[in-house]
Amino acid sequence: MAEVSGNGTIFQMEKDKPKNKCRKWQLRVSTGLDPRTGKYKKKTRVFNGTYTQAKAALRDFIDEVEGDRVQGRTTYTFEEYAERFLQRRELNKEIAPTTLDRQRQHFKAASRHIGKANLAAITPTMLDDMYIAMLGGDTLSGKPSGGSYVNGIHDNISLVFDQAIKEGILVFNPCHKANPPKMDTKAKRALSPAQAHKFIDSLDPEPDRECAYLLAITMGLRRGEICGLSWGDIDFDRKVADIKHSYDYKGNLKATKTKAGTRVLPLSDKTMQILRAHKEAQFKRYARTNQWRKPEEGYIEQTEDSPVISDNCGTRVLPTSLSRWWTEDHAKYGLDGWCLHEFRHTYLTLLAIQGVHPKVMQELAGHYSSQISMDIYTHVNMDSKREAVAAVSEVF
């Protein structure tokens, strides 16, 4: 490990500009006297930014030198290397198209701030400045970003730097010393048993949108799983549903997101009743639609491959349509401010209230890890304990 002598030096490279206008600096760090030459050895780096930022970058540079982690040299800017990173992942089919799109959006947001910077010159301080700017409204939309969104950007650009290290382009990931904001996503809520019962009784299983809400709360399905469900996946004789597909916002019917997501769910009597009523109503609706369709347009048939939730033409609906439906409907059910995913959370919470084991909850929900199920179970169990302690305290 190299030992730095002194505090380092910052040299102004744009001599024709006053110090407060200069944006190009050379950072110099002395690593002591070379016993062979009798001269002082030094390491240098060019930095683009204000003098204040250069001072912070110099401190980071000293830390890197002392840890033998001086960044390599590269011609890649951040946005160039990030695009190369995405192209490689796409060609190798490492991630789903939706994940790829999300990463591309995150890199685009980051490139507004560090896109033109040389990959090796990006420091933790530059990243911290970017996060602060995003939270303050310096974004592509012009609106302040939430902490969870910026935290997601931090996680994804960290993957870019890790890949550069793997390829030998860099030796240090600046994200590891940066300070991203904390997650600020609101905790998911759950309807009480009484609220859930009232909501379910208020829904008609025949219309597609109301049937979709019923599947979310009585089976705990995700939006993509509801939209990906076909009649061939429902076995009315065995009273089970085979959850093996998900439908994404681009209209792709694909395997579930994780291996754990592929599961066979037992159907309750209530859910069986919902599905039978909906299937019959859908069949009649298709028959009415076929009356005015021309032969060359083709007739709509209800087959094993037909979607459970469809539009009037028998087409599978997108998950975004479910969200739009709920935005239009939530007020009339007295659930203003509740999101569709909270029905899934309600389903799991009701299981926990009934004392279902976390491992069984995990399998019913299709969670990759039992930790999420355990968090819900523990929370519900703690509420029960508090009620018991409160009852005893009345005696005291």
TrEMBL record:
Keywords: DNA recombination, DNA-binding. The keyword Heme does not apply. This is Site-specific integrase. Residues 186-390 form the Tyr recombinase domain. Pfam families: Phage_integrase (PF00589). PROSITE patterns: TYR_RECOMBINASE. Gene3D superfamilies: 1.10.150.130, Intergrase catalytic core (1.10.443.10). It comes from Kribbibacterium absianum.
